[in-house]
Automatic annotation (TrEMBL):
Cofactor binding, note field: Binds 1 [2Fe-2S] cluster. The cluster is coordinated with 3 cysteines and 1 arginine. Binds 1 [4Fe-4S] cluster. The cluster is coordinated with 3 cysteines and an exchangeable S-adenosyl-L-methionine.
Protein name: Biotin synthase
Enzyme superclass (EC): transferase
Species this chain originates from: Dyadobacter luteus
Gene coding for it: bioB
Xref: HAMAP family: BioB
Cofactor: [2Fe-2S] cluster; [4Fe-4S] cluster
Residue positions binding [4Fe-4S] cluster: C57, C61, C64
Entry's Gene Ontology molecular function annotations: 2 iron, 2 sulfur cluster binding; 4 iron, 4 sulfur cluster binding; biotin synthase activity; iron ion binding
Matching InterPro entries: Aldolase_TIM (IPR013785), BATS_dom (IPR010722), Biotin_synth/BioAB (IPR002684), Biotin_synthase (IPR024177), Elp3/MiaA/NifB-like_rSAM (IPR006638), rSAM (IPR007197), rSAM_sf (IPR058240)
Length: 327
């Protein structure tokens, strides 16, 4: 058996480094081969991401336009009602989404009426037959358990960057806090969505280290979003250079090879990519994109649904079925 086709949790940093640093065409070919073994290569999952509570976050993530301490000019919006959210989810399903992710700009979940409302949203979206995902910040074990009971399919909690680079980006929580929440999500029986962002001033070694952390978890995250920094005016990282697409391709291909069965999601940064550039990401093993009703992903630009439809048609891609495909 081709050794690339095994699922491994014992990757060394050196092995991942060697894959990551391969000549690009060789890397993409290898990733595409792994992709075709584990996934239908012509299917891309369309996920809708909705900000259910926007801005005013007490955390200091240096890339984020929703942190209250940065003057980014975004409009702060309170938690939406469950009715509004389920209506948007229904339209998202009709438009071809099979996964619906609800994001709240919170440091952590509190046991209050807002959380009860989120549980109601989870129940409502789950009843539509969508894979329902939330990203709400840190969770206690009992909160993770309650989300699971409400029908939550997946929880997103990105590592963002490597353990070494973490303090440069966020000071209000630790890398270990991230891992603790991920463990609680896993323990509750919820599917794990965790990836990171490139272009935060990290080194190549940091990228490899972050991938190493994900690929050596006792179970790989079922979902691995790969984001390019969306430079938001007013944040400390606004002046950083645009991420080169080839860097995204390299990151996606490496993630695909070391976590072959996971969904690898081409996430933030698509609005600055041409169709040709996105095609390379699909060749490298990305099999999911995010959309929203507006042309924004949370508070940063995102391609319009119509443009994505044209791209799918051109590339012969079809949206993954809205039937849940995970057990
Ligand atoms: S990334 Fe999340 S936790 Fe960090 S500031 Fe933004 S909304 Fe808050």
């Amino acid at each position: 058996m081709n050794s690339d086709l095994q699922i491994r949790h014992d990757w060394t940093i050196e092995e991942i480094e060697k894959i990551y640093n391969q000549p690009l065409l060789e890397l993409v070919y290898r990733a595409a081969t792994v992709h075709r073994h584990y996934h239908p290569a012509n299917q891309v999952q369309v996920c809708t991401l909705l900000s259910i509570k926007t801005g005013g976050c007490p955390e200091d993530c240096a890339y984020c336009g929703q942190a209250a301490r940065y003057n980014t000019g975004i409009t702060v919006k309170p938690l939406m009602s469950a009715e509004q959210v389920v209506g948007i989810a229904r339209r998202a399903k009709e438009a071809g989404s099979s996964r619906f992710c609800m994001a709240a700009a919170w440091r952590e979940v509190r046991d209050n009426r807002d959380f009860d409302n989120v549980l109601e949203m989870v129940r409502g979206v789950n009843e539509l037959g969508l894979e329902v995902c939330c990203t709400l910040g840190m969770l206690s074990q009992s909160q993770a358990d309650r989300l699971q009971l409400a029908g939550l399919h997946a929880y997103n909690h990105n590592l963002d960057t490597s353990e070494n680079h973490y303090d440069e980006i966020i000071s209000t929580r630790t890398f270990d806090d991230r891992l603790t929440t991920l463990n609680r999500v896993r323990k509750a029986g919820i599917s794990v969505c965790s990836g990171g962002i490139i272009g935060l001033g990290e080194t190549h070694a940091d990228r490899v280290n972050m991938l190493h952390t994900l690929a050596t978890l006792s179970k790989h995250p079922e979902s691995v979003p790969v984001n390019a920094l969306a430079r938001v005016r007013g944040t400390p990282l606004e002046e950083l250079p645009k991420v080169d697409t080839w860097e995204m391709v390299r990151m996606i291909a490496t993630a695909r090879i070391i976590m072959p069965a996971s969904m690898v999601r081409l996430s933030a940064g698509r609005s600055e990519m041409s169709t040709e550039e996105q095609s390379w990401c699909f060749m490298a093993g990305a099999n999911s994109i995010f959309t929203s009703e507006s042309d924004e992903l949370l508070v940063t630009p995102n391609p319009r649904l119509d443009d994505d439809r044209k791209m799918f048609e051109l590339l012969g891609l079809i949206p993954m079925s809205t039937d849940k495909h995970y057990a």
